[in-house]
Design brief:
The protein is an alpha+beta fold. The protein has seven helices and 17 strands. The strands form six sheets. A five-stranded mixed beta sheet has the order 4-14-13-10-9, with helices on both faces. Strands 1-2-5-6 form a four-stranded mixed beta sheet.
Length: about 350
Amino acid sequence: MRFLPHAADWWTIPTGPRNTIADVAGVTVGHATLTEGTARTGVTALLPHGGDLFRLRPPAGVAVLNGFGKSLGLVQVTELGEIETPILLTNTFGVHACAEALIRSAIRANPAIGRRDSTVNPLAFECNDGRINDIQAMAVDTALAMSAIENADTEFAQGTIGAGTGMSTFGLAGGIGSASRRVVLSRETTFTLGTLVLSNFGKASHLRVFGRRVSGDSSKAPADKGSIIVIFATDAPMESRQLARLARRAGAGLGRLGSHFGHGSGDIALAFSTANMRDMQARAETLPATRLAERSMDAFFEAAVEATEEAVLNALWNAETIEGYSGRRLKTLRDILPEAGR
């Protein structure tokens, strides 16, 4: 992974050892990339833990910053405050294939789903990579989605890979980015917050790196019609309401980069916790839980803003120049930052 120059001078909160979402214990990420024919696309899978998510469900909260998107499963997460499958990221027309893969995977592990048990809520997010990928080819299939799940690990690449292969951010090659923060509440109490983004948003002339506009003013730059998916993971014991509050802070991080959530942009954030997971096999009428004190939320809000900003920059900095199916080429952030050549 490449590291953005002068980054250490900008952030105020320490990172985890990997500086990725996998710094939250149990979280893994996998990619499956397809660059055959006119396809420039893929799937990225995020697993909150290594067990059976249908049986052991992490609490979660959702924030829809701008709802121009076609993600699947958000309504139930908003209602019940928990997730029950891996989280898959892909292109707009790949959501159905990802949903089928998640359903089939859950049924294999739990054959009673939809019969003696409840149905399962597949969670799939999307951004439109149609400027680079021939999205009409609908190249994402269930096998590709399953491959991303099977490849999940604590070490994973960033940039133009997996779901991020054909994505564009502020007119540059974008894609998958990640970052983490250590949230120190006291000498005895430290938690981790991790972020993963699928970045495909922003007007070219609006990009700011460390508070400085770097891409110049361009009257010909197209409007912000892209999208971004932001996933937060934490080991702090937050309930779904607190996690939804945390997810909303993604917007502040995106604003620091120059985003205004354009009319045609789908900007969605989800946060989950690996603490207080609900065991579906428990038969007790009441369940014990520890909840983070509200006065401690500010520390996580600040961490979420920094981690979101850095995750997008890491997506940009680690991206490679890519040529689309129609011949369009996207430069990288390394091409336009003076620091890249030093």
